[in-house]
Amino acid sequence: MSNQSSITLNIVDPGTNGVTCQSQSGCFTPINVKVKVGTKITWVNKSKLAHTIVAVQGQDIAQPKAASQIFDSKKQIASGDSFTYTVTDAAYNFNSDTHRVLYYCSIHPDMVAQLVITK
Ligand SMILES: [Cu+2]
Questions:
Q1: What distance in Å separates the CA atoms of residue 10 and residue 13, rounded to the nearest whole number?
Q2: 79 lies in a domain?
Q3: How far is the CA of 109 from the centre of ligand 1 (A)?
Q4: How far is the CA of 34 from the centre of ligand 1 (A)?
Q5: How many Å lie between the centroid of ligand 1 and the Cα of residue 29?
């Protein structure tokens, strides 16, 4: 997947594929994706609820704090809508030891997923 120039990730309702928004592994599907700098990511909201997509400071998923300078959908993504972000060097360097960026939904903070960024 890391060599694709664009990928699509889905946001799905609880129960689909056995996942649930009540757990940290819910809704963002897949929850762990390897991407290269320059890859265009499109998240498609296939769930019935509106969500946001916001990068998280550091690796603390228990009390996620927004890192809006990395990426932030800013507004709610309604059911059927999508949000697009192209992976930057800033994201690659954000957690310089791991090159991982966590992100979450600020409306449902248990929705957490991860990008593993390569060059
Ligand atoms: Cu949400």
A1: 10
A2: yes
A3: 7
A4: 22
A5: 13
Res. 16 pLDDT band, cuts 50 70 90? low
Is 1 within a domain?
no
Query: Does the pLDDT of residue 15 top 70, yes or no?
Result: no
* Distance (Å) from CA 47 to ligand 1 centroid: 9
The letter for the amino acid at 68 is S
The size of the chain, in residues, is 119
Residue with tokens 């757990």: 23
Instruction: Give the C-alpha separation, 20 to 38, whole Å.
Output: 30
pLDDT the model gives residue 19? 54
Distance (Å) from CA 91 to ligand 1 centroid: 22
- Domain of residue 53, CATH code: 2.60.40.420
What is the spatial distance between Cα 54 and Cα 64, in angstroms, rounded to a whole number? Answer: 10
